[in-house]
Amino acid sequence: MQKLRVRQLVLGCVLGSVSAAEPNPAATRAAADYVPDVAALAVPAASELRELVERYVTDRAEVDRFASVKSSVLHQKRLREFLTAWRTRLAAVDYERLGVDGRIDATLLRTRLEHELRLLDREAKRAAEVAPLLPFAEDIARLQEARRFLEPVDPKAAAVTLDEVRKSIERTRAALEAGLKAAKDGDKGAADPKPAKVAPLAVSKVVAFRAAGRLDELKKSLDEWVKVYDGYDPAFGWWIREPHKQVTEAFAEYGKFLREKVVGIDPKGKDEPVIGDPIGRDGLMADLVNEMIVYSPEELIALAEREFKWVDTELKRAAGEMGLGDDWKAALEKVKQDYVEPGRQPAVVRDLALEAARYVSERRLVTVPPLAADVWLLRMMPPEQQKVAPFFLGGNDILVAFPTDAMSQEEKLSSLRANNRHFARATVFHELVPGHHLQWWARARFNPHRDLFSTPFWVEGWAVWWEFHLWDLKFIATPEDRMGALFWRAHRCARIIFSLKFHLGEWTPSQCIDFLVERVGHERASATGEVRRSFNGSYPPLYQAGYMLGAMQLRGLYGQLVGTGPGKMTEQQFHDEILRGGPMPIELVRARLMQTKLPKEFKPAWKFAD
Asked: How far is residue 595's CA from residue 577's CA, in Å, rounded to a whole number?
């Protein structure tokens, strides 16, 4: 611990004092201030296994590039063999010679390999579920994979294959149409006097949605295969061009049919359903093992409900200070009305960003290098993206959600209310400094090999921890601003509850939307966007739960390590070392900060919420 305490994180100087009326420091700062103490950085890598992890990342990408048709028989076989061999070779590493960081990397990589093998099992199961809708998938995969093995192409045989793919699409679509008709007739209680010409095929909307996505991947693979040979082999073009054109048209029509007729997506983008793909309790337990979380989904829901009780008390207190008794919904409604006029939101974001960076720097809560402070950009979010991200997003830059002139009157008002001044105060620092922007700056410079082990519990937990911490430090002072911050705290609690209940199969997307509206105070449009974003496949199942749970882990760790006396750290040391360590499950952040040498067969056991 002593070695860790005296180690200085080479990040640079802190910001000077800036008021909202003064110029942005970036406008007057000398570029020479962006250069760190190079001599201090000339030290060996922290982990003995950094190159090993980097080799795995590179080789893993090559295997994916070679067996590129995801979920094909070859893809499954090659990847499973590769992961199993890596796991065997990793076990042969001389573990006892490794230091703290080397053991952390060994544990991270072992856990990752085991999880990827479990994900292959999940992928195989899901591929089997969509197979009746895509009976031609392996035919397309074999065309691409024959090319991978440099086998000579037989254009005539390939043309026959493509023609059979087209016919297979037609047969499958006819079976689905018969299934839809049978379901419709069944709902009406009427029997069709004419027997169906094909056996009806019935599937869930979730499986159909998944099949439509896989169909897009297969089309992309087929197009790539054609481009390799077309124009270079005269016989290839003569045989393939027309069948490929017909298959492409069949793909487009079939994908449209799946999305619109089976899933129920409106082609005009209005009232389109939120389709999710729950992974079940076993899937959640497998993902929690990978995140090194020792609680069950049900226990995590109980933790969120416990946090909700604190939020409820604070909401009523803020409402009382606003002169509205304990009617927090009325207080929230009043706060939502305090939004800026069109065109002024960028100035609000600028002022909030500079204020937060100045606050944490002056109090030495975390090191903010001049380059990290200056280089973020402000971008406005297009209306299409706001359907799935109704609030700010961040990382290297900040994406500002705000209504555009192309939106309807209802959409404009909903967006204005959802991005009011007080909600924004509690999100700008989450996205920039000391939140995601500072985090992204550091992870590109310290232990970048650990990007492989990125987890929402570290990524989002860090940003929400600052919401916790700045609340405790009274950075959020007025009752209106506290109401805005509490909206987000309630939102984080709700994310745990609705996402886990959805994946447990207990709630539908509609129930999740209703929960956000009633329990948190969301606009229905923003609640719908939030649920769509959570379940549209862009984020892993535990992502939404990771926000608050990661922050709770860091809160527990802060209580253990920060203070005065032997073995304690300053706030700045604590936060800097979290950034320096790079992304990983928080239990391993704890081991690293405590300089714990993990045993070879380490098993997570930290009950962070006790």
From this structure: 12
Q: Structure tokens of 132? A: 């009746």
Range of the structural domain that residue 233 is part of? 134-263
Same domain, 97 and 239: no
Per-residue pLDDT tens over the stretch 532-583: 889 877 899 999 999 999 999 999 999 999 998 888 999 999 999 999 999 9
277 inside domain: no
CB 583 within 8 Å of CB 448: no
What is the pLDDT confidence band of residue 36, given thresholds at 50, 70 and 90? confident
- 426 three-class SS: coil
Q: Which residues contact 550 (CB under 8 A, 6 or more apart)?
A: 455, 456, 457, 458, 459, 460, 461, 462, 464, 465, 586
68 and 21 co-located in one domain: no
Domain tally, the chain: 3
Last residue of a domain, one of 84, 108, 132: 132
Q: Are strands 393-394 and 398-400 parallel, antiparallel or unpaired?
A: antiparallel
From 378, 389, 382, 392, select the one nearest 347 (Cα to Cα): 378
CA distance 104 to 292: 13
C-alpha to C-alpha distance for 458 and 575, rounded to whole angstroms: 12
Residues sharing a CB contact under 8 Å with residue 167, sequence separation 6 or more, in sequence order:
none
**Cα 89 to chain centroid, rounded:** 31
The rounded distance, in Å, linking the Cα atoms of 585 and 303 is: 19
Say yes or no: 444 and 394 in one domain.
yes
State whether 345 and 384 are in the same domain: yes
Q: Which amino acid is at 75?
A: H
For residue 272, being part of any structural domain is answered with no
Residue 273 domain-assigned (yes or no): no
Residues 59 and 190 both lie in one domain? no
Dihedral of the alpha carbons of 66, 455, 535, 486, in degrees to the nearest 10: -160
Most confident region among 338-347, 390-399, 511-520 by mean pLDDT: 511-520
Comparing CA positions, the residue from 550, 604, 583, 581 lying closest to residue 4 is 581
Phi, psi of 323 (to 5 degrees): 80, 20
95 & 169 share domain: no
Residues 6+ apart with CB under 8 A from 603: none
Q: Is 270 inside a domain boundary? A: no
The first and second tokens of residue 553, run together, are 């882990």
Do residues 368 and 448 both lie within one domain? yes
